Amino acid sequence: MRILLLLLIFVSANMVAQDLPTRWDELTASDWPAALEKSNKTIILPIGILEKHGPHAPIGSDLLNVRAWAEGASKKEYAVVFPDYFYGQINEARHLQGTFAIPDDLAFKLLQATCDEMGRNGFEKIFIINGHGGNPQMLKYFVQTQMAKKNNYVVYYFDPTQDQEFQKKVTKMRKSDAAGDMHGGEHETSALLYLRPDLVQMDRATSESGADQERLPGIPNVYTGIWWYASFPHHYAGEGDKASRELGELVTEHRIDAIAKALKAIKEDTATLKIQNMFYEEVDKNAKPNK
Fold this sequence. Notes:
The protein is α/β, with parallel strands linked by helices. It contains ten helices and four strands, in the order ααβαβαβαβααααα. A four-stranded parallel sheet has the order 2-1-3-4, sandwiched between helices. Helix 5 (136-145) links the parallel strand 3 (125-130) and strand 4 (154-157). The longest helix has 24 residues, at 245-268.
């Protein structure tokens, strides 16, 4: 009888582990120890944004995409997923309704506080995946600033290299010029036709121009913050009307597979936190007190 009872407990525990939700907000407090163990103390922070995506795609396009990537990857390789996070860099779209932009210092403080709370809750590996083209510079700098103070966690940033074979498949399916397909165009609209076709208004895709307006003079080797508005004041870059569900499935599933592969490596990583702690120890050792 005792053996049978132990067997039932073991089977029940396994069933609970298999059915464990991935989203932070869907876990119960009693699930927490199991989620930490199953994820190897790893959490995904998917970051999107709220901004106009041409006249036809939803304002939360980046958020919808990155949320789907996180959900898909966590089903392949279990990790806890933080709920919707859309507090990034989007100053270039402040002239358009629907944009949610917060002060730069607040964006940084909020991101740091979020990571600190993840660490306080037991996570040692925070995996940031980004869905917004205006965020990478900010996020890479944020990751680098983690060296400024001692943390009990490591922040990893998903920064994929180009897959040439995959790009060949995408090129074959494209109907528009890849060079101009940057925002709300064929690529992004295709992904939404795959994930949330109910939110895409394809009949409006040609009601505004997604062409480069070329309003700035060509100054070589110079970058300015106004460049995006000068080129794409409608916050639309590309041809959304050329989108297809088939292309959307291809690019979305490829991204999910790449994230899942990186996630698996992060969960198995035993070196990064150890080396980071060595760095902090050297900083403390060599620090000179202020006089």
